[in-house]
């Protein structure tokens, strides 16, 4: 029996007879010759069935799309083929003949996704070539995240998901019943990471985050993954430096290790190759000026929505960090700037090509009295933050951190048109099936 080989390794088996175990992705036939696209999770390969070269019953096999099949044949080098090889089929076996596939090939390959057909069939949609490519890019980004922080001496420390209080405002909390009392799904592990940074120095978390956001946009999910570093003795400038190095690293890793997937996405890689430091940094005030000049209807003190961010990034071919926002539009934990106490020492990093905010971060308020005052001003219950205030009583130090949204980053790098395609099973406004 020929050796089982994964499609991604076929290039090392040119001239050999091999076995591929996968699914029939696509097919076309022209009389005496059939072209089958087989996928096996590691890639796609064209398999050619020639009538005169296979037994009659093999040529007559006509399994529907997505049938599971085992194909045996000779690996041939072919420079035009994606992956550089194709298979000349000698034998084929149908493992299970699929029923009529609920996602027609046309819908599956279309650049404009028919979401009414696709979203309720996400469990099958994930098999489509582009969805496969996006999930492979996501995997590379996730590995790059872990490598980056590990290599720089950050300790991964996982904060809880069930929490008694909010971090990022009370309007987007998912409430649940915790032994008869209300608890909330975590919006951010930040407050816990601050405690952990006072033990471990440089820490990060990487996990799911929940926001009951009533927005139906191409960049909001109710459940998304966030990576959050937090470092003791880091000032704002240090954390912005780290964020820029981090984003450059992730982009370059995907370019280096996922070229086939980027090609399947039709991604313009030149735009990604440009993502090298230095990036851009501007103040909130300058951002407002720029928007006004471009005719946007904004006033000093406004927060930026998707439209403003899209307009702002038009001028930049690399990420831009917007720094020093008015304190009224930012959360209670951000440190007030000494030079201008109406501002906080924060940054939002916006990605180019219309993506907008991928990172939110800041230096944290490390003074007990000022923090207490900010909690009161925000009308938050002081008792549930007592432990957090404690951190300012026992060896308080300047410290800073940020959160990067993984799905927005995947969307930007992969070129996916909507955030719902960047996570295996998106949780969207009022949509939780499948
Ligand atoms: O700006 P945010 O709300 O920051 C925080 O949560 C801080 N506590 C993080 C920290 O400093 N440790 O969220 C950070 C990032 C955003 O920039 C965005 O990329 C992503 O999380 N994000 C979302 N992604 C998808 N869907 C949503 N509903 C998101 N909300 C935030
Ligand atoms: Mg933010």
Description:
The protein has two domains: 3-101, OB fold (Dihydrolipoamide Acetyltransferase, E2P); 124-421, BirA Bifunctional Protein, domain 2 (2-Layer Sandwich), CATH 3.30.930. It starts with a strand and ends in a 20-residue tail after the last helix. A hairpin with a 2-residue loop joins β2 and β3 (33-39). The protein is an alpha+beta fold. 29% of the residues lie in helices and 26% in strands. The model has no long low-confidence stretch (mean pLDDT 96). The longest helix is centred in the N-terminal third of the chain and has 23 residues, at 129-151. Magnesium ion (MG) is lined by residues 348, 357, 360.
The biggest beta sheet reads: 8 strands, mixed
Adjacency order of strands in the biggest sheet: 7-11-12-17-16-15-14-13
The percentage of residues in β strands lies in 25-35%
> Could you please say which CATH topology of the largest domain applies here?
BirA Bifunctional Protein, domain 2
Give the full name of the CATH homologous superfamily of the largest domain: Bira Bifunctional Protein, Domain 2
CATH level 1 name of the largest domain: Alpha Beta
Which small molecules are bound?
A: 4-amino-1,4-dioxobutan-2-aminium adenosine-5'-monophosphate, magnesium ion
CATH architecture name of the largest domain: 2-Layer Sandwich
What's the number of structural domains?
2
Q: Which radius of gyration do the C-alpha atoms yield?
A: 26 Å
Number of strands: 17
Helical content, roughly?
25-40%
Report the span from N to C terminus: 40 Å
Question: What ranges have pLDDT less than 50 throughout 5 or more consecutive residues?
Answer: none
**Average pLDDT:** 96
Approximate shape: elongated
Structural class by SSE content? alpha+beta
- Per DSSP, the total helix count is 14
Q: What oligomeric state best describes the polypeptide chains here? A: single chain
């Amino acid at each position: 029996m020929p050796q089982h080989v994964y499609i991604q390794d076929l290039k090392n088996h040119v001239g050999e007879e091999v076995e591929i175990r996968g699914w029939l992705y696509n097919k076309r036939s022209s009389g005496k010759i059939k072209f089958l696209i087989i996928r096996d999770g590691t890639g796609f390969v064209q398999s050619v069935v020639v009538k005169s070269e296979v037994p009659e019953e093999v040529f007559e096999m006509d399994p529907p799309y997505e049938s599971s099949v085992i194909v045996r044949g000779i690996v041939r080098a072919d420079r035009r083929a994606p992956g550089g090889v194709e298979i000349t089929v000698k034998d084929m076996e149908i493992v299970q003949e699929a029923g009529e596939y609920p996602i027609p090939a046309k819908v599956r390959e279309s650049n404009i996704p028919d979401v009414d057909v696709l979203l309720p069939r996400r469990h099958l949609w994930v098999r489509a070539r582009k969805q496969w490519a996006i999930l492979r890019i996501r995997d590379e980004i996730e590995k790059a995240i872990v490598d980056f922080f590990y290599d720089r001496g950050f300790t991964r420390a996982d904060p809880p998901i069930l929490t008694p209080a909010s971090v990022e405002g009370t309007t987007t909390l998912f409430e649940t019943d915790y032994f008869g009392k209300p608890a909330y799904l975590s919006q951010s592990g930040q407050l816990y990471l601050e405690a952990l940074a006072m033990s471990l120095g440089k820490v990060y978390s990487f996990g799911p985050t929940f926001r009951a956001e009533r927005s139906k946009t191409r960049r909001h999910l109710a459940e998304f993954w966030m990576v959050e570093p937090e470092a003791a003795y880091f000032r704002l400038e240090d954390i912005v430096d780290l964020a820029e190095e981090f984003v450059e690293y992730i982009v370059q890793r995907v370019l280096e290790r996922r070229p086939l997937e980027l090609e399947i996405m039709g991604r313009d890689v030149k735009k990604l190759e440009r993502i090298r430091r230095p990036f851009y940094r501007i103040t909130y005030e300058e951002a407002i000026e720029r928007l006004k000049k471009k005719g946007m209807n904004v006033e000093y003190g406004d927060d930026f929505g998707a439209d403003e961010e899209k307009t702002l990034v038009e001028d930049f071919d690399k990420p831009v960090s917007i720094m020093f926002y008015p304190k009224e539009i930012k959360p209670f934990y951000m440190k007030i700037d000494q030079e201008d106490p109406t501002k906080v020492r924060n940054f939002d990093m916006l990605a180019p090509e219309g993506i907008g905010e991928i990172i939110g971060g800041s230096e944290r308020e490390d003074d007990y009295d000022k923090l207490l005052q900010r909690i009161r001003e925000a009308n938050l219950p002081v008792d549930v933050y007592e432990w957090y205030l404690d951190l300012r009583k026992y060896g308080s130090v300047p410290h800073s951190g940020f959160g990067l949204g993984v799905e927005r980053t995947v969307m930007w790098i992969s070129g996916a048109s909507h955030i719902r395609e960047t996570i295996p099973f998106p949780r969207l406004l009022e949509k939780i099936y499948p």
